């Protein structure tokens, strides 16, 4: 349990660092961000390990969640995302290429995860520890082409950085969902006020798109903008590679944000709890399940 | 050369300190690199403001032979300016990452200085004579009217006050997408390498418009990026050999004769990780921040966050010596992660005879290890102990519960006072230690 809290704290700190590195002088430092991402990944692994050690949802519910797997929709999103930001220059074309690749990676990672953990993990689907679980919601329009790999909501090691990602400062066209706050405690990893201001906006968007108004009501109070850090991280990696393209940012955000509504509608209207609450909120938990099944980590990082 | 610790060995005493005493340190004044030249006569420092200051060792006073000469400012110049990359909307810092001296071939001195993106070759020359008696212009430089010239004379060289001029002779730009972390002059004195996070380029000192890429570890899919290059160095006497270290704690030795692209290493140095000490931060603290060949070329030394390791080039599976620099920080890694100190890149250096190594720590402490006696000593670079020729007192950090007198507890260490850059004179027991914006010079006490 201690580890979980500690892991969570480290995750928030790491995200803050990633976010801050965007505004540091001299450009984004690839080395430092790589190290931070490794720490983030380790912390997430510990966090999820503890998470799955706790209470789990019923297998049935878990299976339901897994059906409309976010992963696939994410893959779908990735491709259009990459096309959106199709740049002209060489560097950018490389970016575009990489963007499309993650979808493959996502699949393969998911497959790996499933194969490795296909042992009755479904029983662990329920988890009451999701106080701040980075839960994601899918848009209803996401195609639930449940890839067979997502049957089991296992403690995927690939972190769902999506959970940490949120809507971009400006994303008018899509009902992006702000992820539930990954931070349970007060430690703010994101300092930017502007980000928080955008949260209500995106929450509103989600409200419109999601049928479940109850959930959306409660979500705003939980959401913290985690996406900017993550996106900036992706940004960093990309910027380091070739260029800093804001269109990439928005497309990435689109990708992440797209998945919320689906989960929302699947939820039983359970309210996501405020932080630090070990609530057996099935909706919340299911979101978490989704989250863990994602292979968002590396994907997110190099999504564009 | 004698040992580092007390007893019959030499004792380190304060010699000089350069830099402002001000409590308020301007960011631009923070020293970012320190390097002696090959003779030790010159000591160069680079700072975050892009300036290079070169100190010269004054001749010893004949009437006071026990006093070694001091280092005084020889030349100061602005090496790099802040730039802006318009394509990427990135500011390029002017901070000098590394300075490397070229071996001296004539009366002038040459050094390479680099920031994140551009390497420059500077010539530092002396001028102590000036020509007088030109025919076409008079003494203040004005052109003379040719019709007024009735006779010709040969200009003569007259002595003048010594003037030290630094002029940029070459600019090696636009070859690195990522931040340059190392430069190293080859033993052939004609080429040098520059390394950034993912690539290493080989340059010829005379050619600025192109370089050879000899190492490229950028993955086709950046998503698969797992390690970056953290430091690189040319072998001191084999001009075909170089090493580069990675963020994963590994070192690769490459032979340029094997292939044009040295992606496949000749030797791979890695120490197996101790599984019992695994933590969230294991990867960060294993990242190597500096790699240095010994002067002999037989060994190399690597610095990671908590330790210094000496490797025999003939043995790849583990280092021959490991020295703990500040093991007491292992339990504090989380706080050090929070305040970013865990990302500090400490350098290390050998003494001239390769019998001792030195590296920095926090609280303005620096550590020396004697490889023969296995003794180590912790010293502090502080204004308080900066009385002329005052012997430095060994410091100690208390790790247990009981704190002895004169010991400092781990919690009272000042993590803002870090010594990242140190340099050891190539021939004598003189060391230069950069403490934020101050440069301390210590010498042994000749009894």
Automatic annotation (TrEMBL), chain A:
InterPro entries on file: IER
Ranges where the record places region Disordered: 76-283
Compositional bias per record (Polar residues), positions renumbered to this chain: 155-164, 172-187
Pfam families tied to this protein: IER (PF05760)
Bias (Low complexity): 256-266
Highest taxon above the source species: Eukaryota
Similarity comment: Belongs to the IER family.
Name listed for the protein in its UniProt record: Immediate early response 5
Organism: Hucho hucho (huchen)
UniProtKB/TrEMBL annotation, chain B:
Keywords recorded for this protein, A-Z: Repeat, WD repeat
Gene3D superfamilies: YVTN repeat-like/Quinoprotein amine dehydrogenase
A Pfam family this chain is assigned to: WD40
UniProt feature coiled coil, ranges: none
Signal sequence residues: none
Entry GO MF terms: protein phosphatase regulator activity
Protein name listed in UniProt: Serine/threonine-protein phosphatase 2A 55 kDa regulatory subunit B
Subunit field text: PP2A consists of a common heterodimeric core enzyme, composed of a 36 kDa catalytic subunit (subunit C) and a 65 kDa constant regulatory subunit (PR65 or subunit A), that associates with a variety of regulatory subunits.
InterPro entries: PP2A_PR55, PP2A_PR55_CS, WD40/YVTN_repeat-like_dom_sf, WD40_repeat_dom_sf, WD40_rpt
Phylogenetic classification of the source organism: Eukaryota, Metazoa, Chordata, Craniata, Vertebrata
Family: Belongs to the phosphatase 2A regulatory subunit B family.
Alphabetical list of SMART domains matching this protein: WD40
Superkingdom classification of source: Eukaryota
Keyword hit for Repeat: yes
Region (Disordered): 381-404
Gene Ontology cellular-component terms listed: protein phosphatase type 2A complex
Organism of origin: Hucho hucho
């Amino acid at each position: 349990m201690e580890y979980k809290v500690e892991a969570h704290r480290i995750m928030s700190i790491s995200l803050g660092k990633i976010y801050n590195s965007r505004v540091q002088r001299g450009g984004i430092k690839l080395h430092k961000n790589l190290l931070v991402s490794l720490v983030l990944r380790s912390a997430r692994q510990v966090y999820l390990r503890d998470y799955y050690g706790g209470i789990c949802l019923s297998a049935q519910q878990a299976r339901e969640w897994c059906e409309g797997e976010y992963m696939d929709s994410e893959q779908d999103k990735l491709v259009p995302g990459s096309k959106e930001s199709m740049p002209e220059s060489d560097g950018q074309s490389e970016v575009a290429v990489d963007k499309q690749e993650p979808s493959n990676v996502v699949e393969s990672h998911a497959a790996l995860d499933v194969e490795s953990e296909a042992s009755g993990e479904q029983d662990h689907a329920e988890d009451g520890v999701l106080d701040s679980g980075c839960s994601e919601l899918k848009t209803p329009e996401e195609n639930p082409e449940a890839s067979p790999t997502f049957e089991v909501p296992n403690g995927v090691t690939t972190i769902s950085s999506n959970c940490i990602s949120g809507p971009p400062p400006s994303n008018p066209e899509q009902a992006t969902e702000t992820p539930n706050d990954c931070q349970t405690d007060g430690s703010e990893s994101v300092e930017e006020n502007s980000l928080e201001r955008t949260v209500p906006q995106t929450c509103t968007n989600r409200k419109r798109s999601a049928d479940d108004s109850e959930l959306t009501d409660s979500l705003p109070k939980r959401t913290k903008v985690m996406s900017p850090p993550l996106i900036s991280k992706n940004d960093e990696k990309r910027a380091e590679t070739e260029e800093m393209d804001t269109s990439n940012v928005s497309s990435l955000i689109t990708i992440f944000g797209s998945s919320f509504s689906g989960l929302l509608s699947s939820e039983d209207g359970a309210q996501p709890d405020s932080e630090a609450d070990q609530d057996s909120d099935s909706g919340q938990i299911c979101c978490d399940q989704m989250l863990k099944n994602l292979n968002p980590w590396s994907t997110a990082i190099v999504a564009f | 050369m004698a040992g580092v610790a007390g007893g019959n060995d030499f004792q380190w005493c304060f010699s000089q300190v350069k830099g402002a005493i001000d409590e308020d340190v301007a960011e631009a004044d923070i020293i970012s690199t320190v390097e002696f030249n090959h003779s030790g006569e010159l000591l160069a420092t680079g700072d975050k403001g892009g300036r290079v200051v070169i100190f010269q060792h004054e001749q010893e006073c004949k009437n006071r032979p026990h006093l070694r000469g001091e280092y005084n400012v020889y030349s100061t110049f602005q090496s790099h300016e802040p730039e802006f990359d318009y394509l990427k909307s990135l500011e390029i810092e002017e901070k000098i990452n590394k300075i490397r001296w070229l071996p001296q071939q004539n009366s002038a001195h040459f050094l390479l200085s680099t920031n994140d993106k551009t390497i420059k070759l500077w010539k530092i020359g002396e001028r102590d004579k000036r020509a007088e008696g030109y025919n076409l212009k008079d003494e203040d430089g004005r052109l003379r009217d040719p019709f007024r010239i009735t006779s010709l004379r040969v200009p003569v060289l007259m002595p003048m006050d010594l003037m030290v001029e630094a002029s940029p002779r070459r600019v090696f730009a636009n070859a690195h997408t990522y931040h340059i972390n190392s430069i190293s002059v080859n033993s052939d004195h004609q080429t040098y390498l520059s390394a950034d996070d993912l690539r290493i380029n080989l340059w010829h000192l005379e050619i600025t418009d192109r370089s050879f890429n000899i190492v490229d570890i950028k993955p086709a899919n950046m998503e698969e990026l797992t390690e970056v290059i953290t430091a690189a160095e040319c072998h001191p006497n084999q001009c075909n050999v170089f090493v580069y270290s990675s963020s994963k704690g590994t070192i690769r030795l490459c032979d340029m004769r094997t292939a044009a692209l040295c992606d496949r290493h000749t030797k791979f140095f890695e120490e197996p990780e101790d599984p019992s000490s695994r933590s969230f931060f294991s990867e960060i603290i294993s990242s190597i921040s500096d790699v240095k060949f010994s002067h002999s070329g037989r060994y190399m030394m690597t610095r990671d966050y908590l330790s210094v390791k000496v490797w025999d080039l003939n043995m790849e599976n583990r280092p021959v010596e490991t020295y703990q620099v500040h093991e007491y920080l292992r339990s504090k890694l989380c706080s050090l992660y929070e305040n970013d100190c865990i990302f500090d890149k400490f350098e290390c250096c050998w003494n001239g005879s390769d019998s001792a190594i030195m590296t920095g720590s926090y609280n303005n402490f620096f550590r020396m290890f004697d490889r023969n006696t296995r003794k180590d000593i912790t010293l502090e670079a502080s204004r308080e102990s900066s009385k002329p020729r005052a012997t430095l007192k060994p410091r100690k950090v208390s790790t247990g519960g009981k704190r002895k007198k004169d010991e400092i507890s781990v919690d009272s260490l000042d993590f803002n006072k870090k010594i990242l850059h140190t340099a050891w004179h190539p021939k004598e027991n003189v060391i230069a230690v950069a403490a934020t914006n101050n440069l301390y010079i210590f010498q042994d006490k000749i009894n």
